[in-house]
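Job type: complex structure
Entries:
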Amino acid sequence: MFKKILYPTDFSDVAQKALDFIKELKNAGAEEVVILHVIDKRFFDAIAWYTTKDLPEMKRDLLKEVTSEIEPIEKELKDLGFKVKVRIETGDPFTEILRVEREENVSSMAIGSHGVSNIEEMFLGSVSEKVIRKAKKPVHVIKR
Amino acid sequence: MFKKILYPTDFSDVAQKALDFIKELKNAGAEEVVILHVIDKRFFDAIAWYTTKDLPEMKRDLLKEVTSEIEPIEKELKDLGFKVKVRIETGDPFTEILRVEREENVSSMAIGSHGVSNIEEMFLGSVSEKVIRKAKKPVHVIKR
C-alpha cells in the first residue's frame, strides 16, 4: 500500500506536513517517493508575458528556482533511506498529478488539502479535491 | 500520526478496503481503532414509517443487525493487536463522522471514497467528500 508514494508539492506549509506524513510511513513499508512539482501553465504564461528575458532563459531560471526548493526535500528523504525520484512538469496541476500517478504506477499519494492559492480555490474548488475524486490509488489528505 | 485511527464504515466493499489499509498501519505505530457506523437518520425514519413493530423493538433489531456486521471487524482488529472501540450513532453520517472525529481526538481517519448509495452521491456529492473537506485530522481516502 505504501511502497511507492507520490508526493505532489507546491512548497506550501500543508505540503510540508504531507512530507512529515510520508516520513512516518517508512516503518510501514514505504520505499520510494516520487516528488512532483507542477509549474502551473497559467503562472508560466504570466511570467513569459511579463519578462524581458527570452523564453529558454526564463525556463532555465524557473527550473533552477524549483530545483532549489526540491533539493533539500530530496536530501532529507534520501538520508532516511528512501529511494527518490524527482519530476518537474509544466501544465494544469490537476491533470499533471493524475498523469504522473498513472505513469509512475505509485501505491498511494500524500497531498495537502489546500494549496497556496486560497482565493482561487474558494471559487474553483481545490486541485486536491479534484485529484482525490479522480485518483486511482489511495490518497492521504493532510489538513492545514 | 497513526496512533488512533477512526474507521467510519457503511460495510461497503470500499470500506472493507479501508480496513485493509488500517491493518497495514500497524507497523507504522497504529494502536487503536475506533469503528464507527452511522445509521442514517433518513434510513431510520423510513423503516420506522414502514414497520409494524414498535419503536424500541425496531431499534433493537437495527442495533442487532449493525452489531453483527461490526463484530467480525472488531475481532479481526483485536487479533492483530489493536485496541478497539465501537461506536454506533444515528443521524446525518457527515455530521456524526466529524463529531466523533473530534470527540475521540483521533490521529487520522481512513474512509472509502464512495459509500453504498451511488445514485444519491451523484447528485448530492459523497459523504466522504464533505468529510474530507471538514475533517481536522489527516484523511486516508481509499479508492474503489
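Summary: Chain B touches chain A through 22 residues (CB under 8 Å). The mean pLDDT of chain B is 90.
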